[in-house]
Write a structure and sequence with these properties.
heterodimer; A: mainly alpha; MetI-like fold; 12 helices; B: alpha/beta; Rossmann fold; 2 domains; seven-stranded mixed sheet; four-stranded antiparallel sheet
Chain lengths: 296, 370
């Protein structure tokens, strides 16, 4: 401290400037996982969108003359499968399906579960009891079994897989959000809002939600990874995307018969799952840091 | 907190009209029991039969220990909680059973200032919205008119009107409390319930906020229900003071009367605990140290609720609930709920209860050593 007093104003300015720069640098470093994750996601989405530009082959064109070509074969960077279809093309086109699941299934359950949890937590009473018992009911079943049962009932297709995820996955969001809302509704700013005569909807969506949404948003990133794996699992079990459509899980499933002789059939789409999974995890981590640190 | 601002507290115009009357207010909270199918639920007796009234333009101070039900009472009065029984009359209208929708127009006339200047402002709303949203919701002002009103009230409470676009995090504790005051004032309400508005603030800031409240009162003719546990603050701002203990009012009197002639031993003990700035005088006087802790409000003591800790406790106190009425020939506005009120000049620190410890009806294990 004593040196602080001795410092001339310009020295102090310098010190403040370096400290500010240090803070800025450390902020960037702290957000590095977020940026990397976002970059990976953008890359994945771009690959899915630009698939026709990136590869000339169609993902479903069968070439019986060149089955099971290994990676780095001219014209087939990642080789071909048992029907001679280009693995790279199938992975890129497959990204369309798998990313659609990651975003589509997750956003619907995020929004739906959050609203249900918010209403249950804020209103409490009988509405809360009914909704939360419903949540308990869903949690009581093994998750995958429940989804498989629903898909099996509706018939295997991508749309039905979406429906099954929508029906079951909101419960986690509802429970997280309810816990947050129960805490938030005892905050003095909520009491103040009530004392000012604000309506329930306004209090829930304008006052409680903005202060509590971080938890469900972060969870949704983890859930997006889970949904890709779920889609892959259902595809693997033959309940998701149906052949010949190029979905990663289905590809892994088909490739397992050739695992010992043609490893790339299952490994390449597996790596794609891992890539997107890591991307979402990094974004989730980064968002957690970002939303936790600042009020802004 | 100087002598000058005391003068700004308006003297009762021989008692204005009663703005707020609370009669026999009771609020019980059910206790969540872990037992699954238990039907006989227990209740926290947070407020148990409180009656008081606040006159137009005056300040009623409400003091008591933490957990005695002050804040619950305040929230019941504003109907933020539904009351268990009793009656609240505001401006001649019974509001104790109004629905949330019916209460809405009345919200403009009764407002609240909260204790915690950090928790009471939504961190994600700008100051302009915090103060200005009420205008939008009650459709009383829009657009430029609204902005003008917001800035007007910001100026009134001593905030820079240019700062309406900032977030609460950009203000200090005292400034945040000013925002809270501005929000409560936006509609120029008749009654403001101040729930410990200064206890979370620095002492120097406390004086600023108290003087602000006093100035606003004289300027706008506000009526306050002022809750605090700091007796010197209450003495400074109040015309009358109600002392609460375990959900009940134990003594209610004009402020000077209460300080001069405390009748309830609890009041006496509270007053003896107020720090005196003069060390010579501080050394001379006797502090009354109460034994034990506040008993559980789930099963409050029988008779007088203060008897387990009272130095003057006698068998009557265990059996009979004392009535809140004038004692020892006091004026009609000095009420105390005590069978054995403190005489003028009596030193109750020398008193010993005439009942033994095991006769005191309290929850076991709660009577610790002081």
């Amino acid at each position: 401290m004593s040196t602080m007093w001795a410092a001339t104003p310009s020295e102090q300015l310098m010190r403040m400037a370096t400290r500010a720069a240090g803070r800025r640098r450390s902020a960037t470093r702290r957000r590095l996982p977020l940026y990397i994750g976002l970059a990976m996601l953008v890359l994945a989405v771009a690959a899915a969108v630009l698939a026709p530009v990136l590869v000339s082959q169609s993902p479903t064109t069968i070439d019986v003359l060149h089955p099971l070509a290994p990676p780095l074969t001219p014209g087939h960077a990642l080789g071909t499968d048992q029907f001679g279809r280009d693995v790279l093309a199938r992975i890129l086109y497959g990204a369309r399906i798998d990313l659609a699941i990651a975003f589509g299934a997750t956003i619907v359950t995020l929004v739906g579960g959050t609203i249900i949890g918010l209403v249950a937590g804020y209103l409490g009473g009988r509405i809360d009891s009914v909704l939360m018992r419903l949540v308990d009911l869903f949690f009581a079943f093994p998750f995958l079994v429940l989804i498989i049962a629903i898909v099996a009932m509706l018939g295997p297709s991508i749309l039905n897989m979406f429906v099954a995820i929508w029906i079951t996955s909101w419960v986690a969001y509802a429970r997280i959000m309810r816990a947050q809302a129960v805490v938030a509704k005892r905050q003095q700013y909520v009491l103040a809002a009530r004392a000012l005569g604000y309506g329930r909807l306004r209090i829930m969506f304008r006052h409680i939600l903005p202060n509590t949404a971080s938890a469900v948003i972060i969870f949704s990133m983890v859930d997006a990874v889970g949904n890709i794996i779920l889609a892959a699992s259902l595809g693997f079990l033959g309940l998701g995307a149906q052949p010949p459509s190029p979905e990663w899980g289905t590809m892994i499933s088909e490739g397992q018969n050739y695992l010992l002789t043609s490893w790339w059939l299952a490994t390449m789409p597996g790596l794609a799952v891992v890539f997107v999974g890591i991307a979402f995890s990094l974004v989730g981590d980064g968002l957690a840091d970002l939303l936790r640190t600042g009020e802004r | 907190m100087n002598a000058e601002t005391t003068a700004t507290v308006p003297e009762p115009a021989a008692g204005g009209d009663v703005l707020l009357r609370v009669e026999n207010l009771v609020k019980y909270f059910p206790v969540q029991s872990s037992a699954f199918f238990r039907r006989d639920r227990e209740y926290v007796h947070a407020v148990d039969g409180v009656s008081l009234e606040v006159r137009q333009g005056q300040t009623l101070g409400l003091v008591g220990e933490t957990g005695c039900g002050k804040s619950t009472l305040a929230r019941c009065i504003l109907r933020l909680y539904n009351i268990t029984s009793g009656r609240i009359t505001f401006d001649g209208r019974d509001i104790s059973k109004l629905s949330a929708r019916q209460m809405r127009p009345l919200r403009r006339e009764m407002q609240m200032i909260f204790q915690d200047p950090y928790g009471s402002l939504n961190p994600r709303r700008r100051v302009g919205s915090i103060i200005g949203d009420p205008f939008a919701i009650h459709k009383t002002a829009t657009g430029q008119e609204r902005k003008r009103k917001v800035q007007e009230v910001m100026e009134l409470v001593g905030l820079n009107p240019e700062h309406f676009n900032r977030f609460p995090a950009e203000f200090s504790g005292g400034q945040r409390q000013r925002i809270g005051v501005a929000r409560a004032l936006a509609f120029r309400p008749k009654l403001i319930v101040c729930d410990e508005p200064v206890s979370a603030l620095d002492v120097s800031i406390q004086a600023q906020i108290i003087n602000l409240l006093a100035d606003l009162q004289s300027e706008l003719g506000l009526t306050y229900l002022f809750i605090a546990h700091d007796l010197s603050v209450v003495r400074h701002v109040s015309n009358k003071v109600a002392v609460m203990y375990l959900g009940q009012v134990t003594e209610l009197a004009p402020v000077d009367d209460l300080w001069a002639h405390p009748r309830h031993p609890y009041t006496d003990a509270l007053l003896s605990a107020v720090p005196v700035p003069d060390p010579d005088k501080a050394g001379q006087r006797e502090r009354i140290i109460l034994a034990g802790d506040v008993p559980s409000p789930i099963s409050p003591p029988s008779g007088c609720r203060f008897h387990p800790r009272c130095p003057k406790a006698a068998p009557t106190c265990v059996e009979k609930d004392p009535v809140l009425e004038p004692r020892l020939g006091d004026a009609a506005d000095h009420l105390a709920a005590c069978h054995f009120p403190v005489e003028d000049g009596e030193d109750i620190s020398k008193s010993r209860p005439t009942i033994s410890a095991d006769e005191r009806v309290i929850e076991s294990g709660l009577l610790g050593s002081a």
